[in-house]
């Protein structure tokens, strides 16, 4: 009997010891640095910042050429064949485009490199000079990547512009950088035509699609992507490779406030981030398949698509609207991108992961009965295991739940995901746990900015905590400096707190033609280290991991002197099942907050159905007093659970039935809310909430 007891205790003791060792693991350690006094942490495995992980490689152009020579015959870039473009009309007369897509068609590393060289030569033959800038203005696709690498081979600086950018911001970006060549898609070319009279320097346009609007002819020299390749193939030009300090990209942020700013990134900046991430993602290599669908004009995606070829991986292109079998643009009977590609690694922004979570929950709730009970039981068992319960689902039980329940969930993203990278905004603890359990893959939550080439912190694969963004990347030092006005000091107990400042080789040169703003947030210390002041507020845990706790610009003082952190409250309340998006509004002349809430149609309609609330359409339902009361009650409960102060929880809300999209100008391409734009658009509604 004793033997059985000992045998049963061994795995429990082993598990507890293992978890204990993880809790004590130092992921980041203090370091002595120059600059403004503060509390600075570096990655525990790297005493000095990493600049490159490849011997003799100092630029993105060199890195790509080396990869293509090493893996010449292996597939690199894949695009799905368009079989049919259809339009479906709903009963209420609305029309939606639906796509019937086939399998992926592949370009090998060798063929891709050849195409890059031909396109680069074609650019020169068209008359583009090295000192002139090229803008890439398109959705993420194969041609985007090829154009980027072609420009790198010519040491031509690329201006990246979100495809969803509005006309004013687009005009500003092109004129400020004095772009002479724009590479775009058919859809984006139409936008260019609309502002053609306002563009000062554009002389040539290259359309990624073979067909483009005839109305564009005569305004610029217009060529198709294929034609440029053909010209270059016939008249090859030698490469003019860049140096590490040369500017590779001027990346225009989508701008949550005002006009976008152009961040100048050198080859060395981006290479440092790429090199650092390679050391963090476990076992990243030639067997990995990456699903590319985020905007390449975002540093997270641009860094990822430069990393995957460097390790011999495969990139398959998709879109957010064709990602899964049930995505909006997928024609019934057609498989989504993830199902066809079966990726092993993906990058995502929290808004995308929130949609995956909500989609799974919607399906589970719709099934109901035994299926829902089984899912809830499996989820609770796995959650207790991750949270450290003695009775969690480990070993054989974990395998059983994975086989019976979660295998179907994993099929949503192709069934082979082994690692997810989340960045661009804070990921809620609820979504992080849900995705981690249901997909059975770790989520590496990163923190960084365009100004730091996404390089700052990244959570390690064995860190199962939530609400934190990991320890410093090997390319970065992360410092906290006092912000007395906000009440955050590095001397605070139990953790040092303060404004987050990032230093290291991934910190960019500054803002293009904006020296005043550059001097405000970039500093060079006495040792030559460049630092960027983020405006975010964080605290360091004992193991050296960072937690984002506030934002300097999001602080508003209410009428009676209480401070409200808008972003912190929004992050806490966004986990309500009724919330698709939310913006908290605080007015210094009032003692309470209000909120605009974009309602989750599924959740609200499901509640109405169960309560017997009659409605003709969703917009009407969102106007009903009972609906508003139910959603507000949910926010109050969640706010109390999150230990928000009473004055932080909105006293009144306005329910909105129409989602905020990049096209509407109310969220950025990375799906962050554009606070000022929303305030302006809903000024009357906000005013009514205070009456």
TrEMBL record:
Cofactor list: Mg(2+)
GO molecular function: ATP binding; long-chain fatty acid-CoA ligase activity
One Pfam entry name: AMP-binding
Start and end residues of each AMP-dependent synthetase/ligase domain: 98-512
Domain of life: Eukaryota
Pathway linked to the protein: Lipid metabolism; fatty acid metabolism
Swiss-Prot/TrEMBL keywords: ATP-binding, Ligase, Nucleotide-binding, Signal
InterPro entries for this protein: AMP-binding_CS, AMP-dep_synth/lig_dom, ANL_N_sf
Catalytic activity reported: a long-chain fatty acid + ATP + CoA = a long-chain fatty acyl-CoA + AMP + diphosphate
One Gene Ontology term, aspect cellular component: membrane
Stored SUPFAM superfamilies: Acetyl-CoA synthetase-like
Signal peptide: 1-15
Classification via PANTHER family: ACYL-COA SYNTHETASE LONG-CHAIN, ISOFORM J (PTHR43272:SF83), LONG-CHAIN-FATTY-ACID--COA LIGASE (PTHR43272)
Family: Belongs to the ATP-dependent AMP-binding enzyme family.
Name of the protein in its database record: AMP-dependent synthetase/ligase domain-containing protein
Organism, as annotated: Gossypium stocksii
